[in-house]
Write a structure and sequence with these properties.
mainly alpha, 4 helices
Length: 67
């Protein structure tokens, strides 16, 4: 069960991390850009199937899931 919960939370965690990296550009654009390029290679796992798992993430409210 724990594995399913973690898998369902992955898309939200990835999105939050990308938002954080974007905000970090104001502190160090060079570091943020390098980190984003590195992470971008791993985003291929965010296909339609895995993003659909976000509907089962308990930390996403009903309002957020419908917008």
């Amino acid at each position: 069960m724990l594995k399913l919960v973690l898998l369902a939370s992955a898309p939200l965690g990835d999105l939050q991390f990308l938002i954080y990296l974007n905000k970090y550009k104001t502190m160090s654009e060079k570091v943020a850009t390098a980190a984003f390029k590195n992470v971008a290679g791993h985003l291929s796992r965010l296909g339609e199937e895995s993003v659909a798992l976000a509907f089962f993430d308990r930390s996403v409210s009903c309002d957020e899931g419908t917008t």
